[in-house]
TrEMBL record, chain A:
Gene3D superfamilies for this protein: 3.10.20.30
PANTHER family the record matches: SULFUR CARRIER PROTEIN CYSO, SULFUR CARRIER PROTEIN SLR0821-RELATED
Tree of life domain: Bacteria
Signal sequence coordinates: none
Native source species: Pseudonocardia sulfidoxydans NBRC 16205
Protein name, as recorded: Molybdopterin synthase sulfur carrier subunit
InterPro entries listed in its UniProt record: Beta-grasp_dom_sf, Mopterin_synth/thiamin_S_b, Sulfur_Carrier/Prot_Modifier, ThiS/MoaD-like
UniProtKB/TrEMBL annotation, chain B:
Composition-biased stretches (Basic and acidic residues): 1-15
PROSITE patterns on file: MPN
Transmembrane segments: none
Organism listed in the record: Pseudonocardia sulfidoxydans NBRC 16205
GO molecular function per UniProt: metalloexopeptidase activity; zinc ion binding
One example of a Gene Ontology biological process annotation: proteolysis
UniProt entry tagged with the keyword Iron-sulfur: no
Protein name: Peptidase
SMART domains with a match to the protein in the record: JAB_MPN
Keywords: Hydrolase, Metal-binding, Metalloprotease, Protease, Zinc
Presence of keyword Protease: yes
Region (Disordered): 1-26
Length: 91, 151
């Protein structure tokens, strides 16, 4: 199973755990598996089938936005890191 | 605080951004980490996604969290915008805003004070907090590096 690193703001869904395990051959499948174990987490990451603008997901060192999006491949040995974007602006 | 203001002035007219990391649970901002604004914009800031991953890995390995997340506004007051609020996702962080708008005003010269304010942003609710300047945090650059390794 892949290891998924959970950011502070989503740890309410994982009972405070910083890292959990999930299986799946793609990022989308890993998120579905996460949802089955930690209900509510999927809605914090995906709306209408696409990744939230506010959220970055990495498979190992690669931002999935540049590596196939939600269809990016995940291996059993992969670490999937979820990080909220740090961004803002005056408007 | 001086470093945050200096960074904000240096990057003006673009928005500057960065964090001050500290030991998890301590609420002590100790390690100043200026970040590149990947948006290079006067109205928007964003940490580069690769930089963001490296930053969080680095903080994790030191058992640190982002105690302060700062950015500058270049033409408006130092108050969180709607965009800032929608992106804010560290409920334990102090969101520091610096306004460099006075730099637009040539006549008032470089000596004028930058606005420096701090907020909590939790579930879309903004709460301003008082800023207290404490000298001792200035030694922060050494951080854990001054503890000898037991190698």
């Amino acid at each position: 199973m892949a290891t998924v690193s959970i950011p502070t703001i989503l740890r309410t869904h994982t009972g405070g755990e910083k890292a959990v395990e999930a299986s799946g051959g793609t990022v989308a499948a890993v998120i579905d598996d996460l949802e089955s174990r930690h209900s509510g987490i999927k809605g914090r990451l995906i709306t209408d089938g696409s990744l939230h603008r506010f959220v970055n997901i990495y498979v190992d060192d690669e931002d999935v936005r540049f590596a196939g999006g939600l269809e990016a491949p995940v291996k059993d040995t992969s670490t999937v890191t979820i990080l909220p974007a740090v961004a803002g602006g005056m408007r | 605080m001086d470093e945050i203001v200096a960074h904000s002035r240096r990057d003006h007219p673009d928005e500057a951004c960065g964090v001050v990391a500290g030991p998890e649970g301590s609420d002590r901002p100790e390690r100043f980490i200026p970040m590149l604004n990947a948006a290079r914009s006067p109205t928007f800031y964003e940490f580069d996604s690769g930089d963001l991953l490296r930053l969080y890995r680095d903080m994790d390995s030191r058992d640190e969290v982002p105690v302060v997340i700062y950015h500058s506004h270049t033409a408006t007051e130092a108050y969180p915008s709607r965009t800032d609020i929608s992106y804010a996702s560290e409920p334990d962080a102090h969101y520091v805003l610096v306004s460099t708008r006075s730099q637009n005003d040539e006549a008032s010269g470089p000596g004028n004070e930058a606005e420096f304010r701090s907020y909590r942003i939790v579930d879309g609710v903004v709460t301003e907090e008082q800023v207290e300047v404490v000298e001792t945090y200035m030694f922060a650059h050494t951080g854990a590096d001054d503890v000898p390794d037991n190698a």
